[in-house]
Amino acid sequence: MRIGIFDSGLGGLSIARSIMERLPEYDYLYLGDCKRVPYGNRSQETIHEFVAEAMDYLFAHECQLVILACNTASAESLRKQQQEYLPRNFPDRRILGVIIPTAEAVAETGAKTVGVVATASSIESGAFQREIMRQAPSAFIKALATPLLVPLVENGGLKYVRPILKDYLAELGEVDALVLGCTHYTLLKDEFRALTSAKVISQDELLPEKTADYLRRHPEIESKLGKHGERLFHVTDITSMYQHFGEQLMGGPVKFEKVNL
Question: What share of the chain is helix, strand, coil (3-state, %, to 5)?
Fold first, then answer.
C-alpha cells in the first residue's frame, strides 16, 4: 500500500518532495489534476466532485493514506471526504489535509498577530481563520488573498515577484507570524523572509514531521504501507511548462505519467 499525495496541479510537489525526503522508505503515488487546475475558482460542489474522483483513483491504486496537498481542497472538501466519502467507500483508509497541521504550527509559535496569505478561494472559505482560532484562540488574524502569486510562480515569473510581495505585505501590515497558505508559495519563502521580520510558516517545512508523527501514532495505518521507496507521479495533463515546473519543485528530473480520472 502507498501514501497518496494529491493536488489540483503541481504545487503539491513541494509538499511531496519534503515528505519523501523525510520518509524515503515508503511507497508514494502523487496525483496532480493539471487538466482542471485551478480549483480555486470552482464551486464547492464541483470541488467535492473533483476531489472524490481523485480519491477514487488513489484508493484504486492502493493508497492507504492520502494527503490533500492542496489548500483549496483541504479548505473546501476535506471534512466532507472524511465524514461522508470514507465511511461509505473506504472505511479503513484515511485522508489528511494541510490546514490543521499549519494551524498547529502557528499555535506553537505563540504569535499574537498572525498573517495568512493564500488564494482568494482559501481566504474566502475561512478555513485557515477558523482552524487558527481553534488552535490559538488569543491570536488576532489578518487574512489576505494574493491572487497574483500563483500565475507568477507557474509561469517562471519569480524575478518579478519582489515588488508584488512588498505591496501585499504592506497591505497586510505588521504581524508576528506569516502563514504561506498555498503550496506554490513554498517557492517564495526565501523572498518573504527577506522582506519581513515575521516568523514565516511554510508548509513544506512542517508537514514532513507532522506526517511522521501521524504514522507513529497510527501503527494500524503505518504497518500496511509498502516500504520499497517507490515513487510514481501521475497527472491528468502534461505540457512542457508543467514538466519544467514539476522538475523545479522536485529539484530534478521527474517522470510524469498521464492518466484519466
Answer: 55, 20, 30
pLDDT at 154 over 90: no
**pTM higher than the cut 0.70:** yes
Which three cell numbers mark 28? 508514494
Q: In what order do the strands lie in the sheet with 140-145?
A: 140-145, 113-118, 177-180, 199-202
Pairing, β 63-68 against β 113-118: unpaired
For the chain, what are the domain ranges?
2-97+205-258, 99-203
Q: Minimal CA–CA distance to 51: which of 28, 75, 29? A: 75
**What confidence tens digit (pLDDT) does each residue in 82-112 have?**
999 999 999 999 999 999 999 999 999 999 9
Residues serving a catalytic function are 70, 182
The CATH number of the structural domain formed by 99-203 is 3.40.50.1860
**Are the C-beta atoms of residues 116 and 132 closer than 8 Å to each other?**
yes
Is there a contact between 139 and 132 (Cβ–Cβ < 8 Å)? yes
- Is CATH 3.40.50.1860 what the domain over 2-97+205-258 is classified as, yes or no? yes
Asked whether 191 and 167 are in contact (CB, 8 A), the reply is no
Q: Which residues, 6 or more positions from 110, have their beta carbon under 8 angstroms from its beta carbon?
A: none
Residues 6+ apart with CB under 8 A from 173: 115, 142
Q: Which residue has the cell 500496511?
A: 224
